[in-house]
Amino acid sequence: MDMKFEKHCWAEIDLDALRHNFAYIRQAVGGPVCAVVKADAYGHGDVATAKAIQQAGVAGFAVSSLGEGHHLRHYGITIPILILGYTGVQNAAALAVGGISQTVFSLEYARALSEAALRAGVAVRVHLKVDTGMGRIGFTADDDMERAVAEMAEACALPGLVPVGVFTHFAAADSTAPEDIAYTRRQYDILCAAVEEMAARGCTFAVKHCCNSAGTFAWPEFHLDMVRPGIILYGEQPSADTVLPGLVPALRLRAAVSMVKELAA
CB within 8 A of 57, min separation 6: which ones? Predict the structure, then answer.
């Protein structure tokens, strides 16, 4: 026995629960599902999780970094992978060779990635991120639509980049408060307006997506071409406002009992 690591406390991951949750999501959606497996699949183990869901028919995976994407590729994940966060442009060749799509969130970043791709002699598949009010990375269409569309159109025309998708992220899709419902609808409308303006400039995308876990069920009319569930894949609820009875938690934290002692009150 290897005494370097005694299992006094451990996590058990139920792959059947993961498969059940994925099937539950896919049946509700009736279309492509991109499973979010960032941060080691929310602590559930990215490789085991991804392999189980890949076999179940998922359309793709979303990760937060190039390292996470390469880890999946190294262990046999072959379907599309999208990096939701930043990747240094010096890794353009690694993105292309790995067949991993990169989020482009500003014209400055798009230009730098284009130059790096040309120097490396590769073409990088990209998804444009539109900031519709979340406040994270993205072309700020909620503040200045005209400028955002102009910058996105220029980014799409850059050599070395292959635009395949456009997306946003909802800030409050898990809330049933009237102001949050209005905010989510506004975010969707901003994305659609940006996509329409882009199309008028000759820039179209094969994949448009915006629904996170809560949006997947609370806003079925916003599914577009693909949904991106994260936390619900692992059997956890998006929020107290958005409760899905069909989910099965996939993780159980367990520990060995060292001692049981009875004490006076």
Answer: 26
Strand partners, 127: 103, 165
Q: In sequence order, which residues have a C-beta less than 8 Å from that of residue 251 and are 6 or more positions away?
A: 11, 12, 13, 14, 43, 44, 234, 235
Long-range contacts of 140-144 (CB under 8 A, 24+ apart): 141/190, 141/191, 141/193, 141/194, 142/187, 142/190
Beta pairing, strands 34-36 & 251-255: unpaired
Q: How far apart are CA 161 and CA 13, in angstroms?
A: 38
> Is the per-residue pLDDT at 2 higher than 70?
no
pLDDT recorded at residue 7: 79
Alpha-helical segments (H) within the chain: 15-29, 38-43, 46-56, 66-74, 92-98, 107-120, 145-156, 178-200, 213-218
Q: Count the neighbouring beta carbons within 10 Å of the beta carbon of residue 251.
A: 17
Residue 179: phi and psi, rounded to 5, are -65, -30
Residue 193: per-residue pLDDT: 98
User: How far is Cα 225 from Cα 102, in angstroms, rounded to an integer?
Assistant: 18
pLDDT (tens digit per residue) in 64-116: 999 999 999 999 999 999 999 999 999 999 999 999 999 999 999 999 999 99
DSSP state of 75: T
Handedness of CA 56, 61, 63, 66 (dihedral sign): positive
